[in-house]
Amino acid sequence: MARALYIHWPFCLKKCPYCDFNSHVRDGVDHALWEASLIADMRYEAEIAGGEALESIFFGGGTPSLMPPGLVASLLAEAERLFGFAPGIEITLEANPSSVEAANFAALSLAGVNRVSLGLQSLDDEALQFLGRLHNVAESLTALDLAQQHFGRVSFDLIYALPGQSAEAWQAQLERAIALGTGHLSLYQLTIEEGTKFATMVREKAFTPLDDDSGGDLFTLTRQITAHHGLPAYEVSNHAKPGEKSRHNMAYWQYRDTLGIGPGAHGRRLGEATVRHKKPENWLAAVARHGHGIAESRNLGLREQASEAMLMGLRLTEGLDLGALSARFGMTPDQLCDPDRLAFYATKGLTWQRGTRIGVTGQGMPLLDALLGELVPAELVVGE
Questions:
Q1: Where are the domains of the chain?
Q2: Strand 238-240 vs strand 272-276: parallel, antiparallel, or unpaired?
Q3: Residue 52 three-state SS
Q4: What are 44-103's pLDDT values in tens digits?
Q5: 144-172 burial: b if 16+ Cβ within 10 Å, else e
Q6: CATH number of the domain located at residue range(s) 4-252 in this protein
Q7: Backbone angles phi, psi at 88, to 5 degrees
């Protein structure tokens, strides 16, 4: 049964040069039309996968803090009517730290949002300009202060491993970030994604990305500093104080059912994968025609589900329980994970096994993609 709901708001004021998310810039947005269409998309999902109270809702984007608080309140009211809310439900909204959006924090809190994730991205004005952000550090700190006043839980994002960034500069920025007192940090290395402005700039030699070895050193330093200050990594890029993990993202990483509505949203529910139309206009047209925005849906075989569960679960510091996955998918532990390769990489300090639980060590996390290819059997990844 569905336990988590993702709502995608695709609009931004500007497309950032590093961003490959489904975000779009439009001169105007018909909020009444979007409210009706998102509710229709949500109702379609409830018809298929209702019956279980939601444990988390996540408004992602795009820039969801551009949504009118009244629209957020309407969507939450409909979600509660359709599914019901579990006690202590986590309701997260991504926000940028502009003064216009921060002014809505009080109203968003009253609408029901109880956790906010702020896209600060850097505590250095020069870096913010390089990243194409519309705010400066002063606005970031003002927005963060307002968020901490209005929401019970606050997280913010930073991007590191920028061109030429030294370990000393990143350490100073990270320690400043930790001192701001949030319970959760998402810390991402800059990656050059195809189709972005940065990818074009790198091809044109406008700048040179930080080399992999230096990036790996910063990754290790990041884990050391956050652990020292009581925000250890619990996933590749996410760090939290006890009790502050993102429960919504844990639903993905623990491979629990998640519903996704809105343009480009992905879902996994009842053994089926769903993908919505990406372009906002195409999604709106699909909802008008069919009552939902799904572009593609397909049944997932048990092998494919098992493969996805392995690939997601090994991102977590806590790893995963092979015994539980074996029972869930009707497969042996050796079918899920190559025991010889697991043991080999354990001797190298890259993986671990404790009873039926397995995982990747901190030393192994920078090599996660390669390790996944080694540990998860090819016949499992290919699927049935």
A1: 4-252, 302-382
A2: unpaired
A3: coil
A4: 999 999 999 999 999 999 999 999 999 999 999 999 999 999 999 999 999 999 877 888
A5: bebbbebbebbbbbbbbbbeebeeeebee
A6: 3.20.20.70
A7: 75, 25
